[in-house]
Amino acid sequence: AKGTYKPTDGTDRTRSFVLKSGVKLLGGFKGTETLSDERNVAANPVILSGEIGDPLTRADNSYHVVRGTGLDAATLVDGFVVTGGYSYGPYNSNSSDDVGAGLLLEGAPWIPLSNPVISNCTFLNNSANYGGAIGIYGQRIGNNQFLILNPTIKNCFFDYNTAQSQGGALFKTGSTQMDTFKLMDCRFSGNRAVSGGGGGVSIDEAPYSVVCIKRCTFEKDTSFIGG
User: Fold this and answer.
1) How far is CA 189 from the centre of its chain?
2) Which of 112, 161, 182, 207 is the most exposed place for a label (fewest CB within 10 A)?
3) Contact call for residues 47 and 83 (beta carbons, < 8 A)
4) Do 108 and 66 touch, CB atoms closer than 8 A?
5) Would you tell me how many other CB atoms lie within 10 Å of the CB of residue 53?
């Protein structure tokens, strides 16, 4: 229902809203509806906030406001404002502490293709080393082998998110083999990559990947190197 929610009442930065495979998470309810079709996302904003500590500093905010691992195609996140994630940590092949402050999606060995749907969401003022708003983290599990992770992201707004390195709003790594990574009907505005590339989006893929970016708007996104 309409309101602001945080992943913890305490100050543990590792706590997140954890998505479960096959579950639909819907925002935009007033609280009196009897059917999901009756909800109104614009009239009843649901804010998922990583602002769990001192509101005067972001350094104690949640590493990831929302996260999910090995999510199937029946998994849906629809109708939320995700804000206040702050993900900075050592970047290496075994860590995702600095990827995806608003939403971190990770592949898993128990699912050959992870492809959840993210729709009708706004990602606002999140900050990370890689992928300020969303990090799609398909780790390498062998020689030229990745956990395959291809979400569909549609009808989403990405506003004023920041990455210290790559992908001011969105950073994706890992092959898209067996499927297509889809980014549709989204707006990227005022996002920034401070010292790297991809002010709006950075896609770091293995060979033979397929990416579809369709009917998207990029405005006033900036980067240090390119894109």
Assistant:
1) 15
2) 207
3) yes
4) no
5) 17
